[in-house]
Design goal:
The chain is of the alpha/beta class. The chain has helices at about 5-10, 15-35, 55-80, 95-105, 125-140, 150-155, 200-215; strands at about 40-45, 80-85, 115-120, 165-170, 190. The structure holds 3-methylbut-3-enyl trihydrogen diphosphate and magnesium ion.
């Protein structure tokens, strides 16, 4: 979700206003996801690198997250959306941690869709954490290093049971991965749009799905259709 700041700047508004409109886009995309029957949505809401932003903006974003849960938590439950979080949970403000934990627990069963929030998330850190976990197991003699495969690494990532994304959408025209799901995106289709995140709504989401549907995915093999 990129371009909140530029969206606001274009209108002479504060960056926080851009983030507020961005939160509305989250709701719109969640509606579209349910309509389309997409079962997993991961939103890159805050990266490990975002902590270096001015204190006011970081606080504003955390506050917005808190407000979002208060206002729309019930709606998520009613719509059978399970909430999960990936990233450095402990670095988030205590109040935000509590609200997230409550909603994760309440939505853990009876769900059809999964919303994953990447919060204080960095992909290299995730892979390093997986390496650490594997190293610990080998040091304790629980795992033979010779048996470590791609699957072993995948099984030690933050959410090993979540399937790899099929489509990665990046808004605001940036052509970067920005440390997002580097391992998991190996075979994902990439879709980049110039639209700023606060303007990315149902219509834009369906457009992305449409383009995705026309791509021929071969996974390194040959064309079959
Ligand atoms: C993305 O919008 C929102 C978050 C990182 C939370 P930006 O804040 O990066 O917007 P730009 O890139 O300054 O336009
Ligand atoms: Mg940005």
């Amino acid at each position: 979700m990129d371009g909140n700041g530029r969206w606001a700047q274009q209108r002479g508004l504060s960056r926080l206003k851009g983030h507020e409109q961005g939160a509305e886009s989250v709701r719109a995309v969640l509606r579209a996801v349910r309509q389309a029957g997409v079962r997993y949505l991961t939103l890159y809401a805050f990266s490990t690198e975002n902590w270096i932003r001015p204190k006011d903006e970081v606080e504003g974003l955390m506050n917005l997250l808190s407000i979002f849960i208060d206002r729309h938590g019930k709606e998520l439950l009613e719509n059978k959306i399970r909430l999960r979080v990936m990233g450095q949970f402990d670095r988030l403000p205590r109040t935000v941690q509590k609200k997230l934990a409550q909603l994760m627990e309440k939505s853990a069963e009876n769900y059809e869709y999964t919303l994953i929030l990447a919060l204080s998330y960095g992909s290299r850190l995730e892979i390093a954490d997986a390496a650490k976990a594997i190293a610990r197991k080998t040091a304790r003699g629980e795992l033979d290093p010779e048996t470590v495969t791609e699957e072993t690494v995948a099984n030690h990532l933050y959410l090993p049971d979540v399937p790899d994304p099929e489509l990665m959408i990046r808004t605001s025209g940036e052509l970067r991965l920005s440390n997002f799901l580097l391992w998991q995106l190996s075979y994902a289709e990439l879709y980049v749009t110039d639209v700023f995140w606060p303007d990315f709504r149902e219509k834009e989401f369906f457009q992305a799905l449409e383009v995705f549907g026309r791509r021929g995915r071969r996974y390194g093999g040959v064309v079959t259709k």
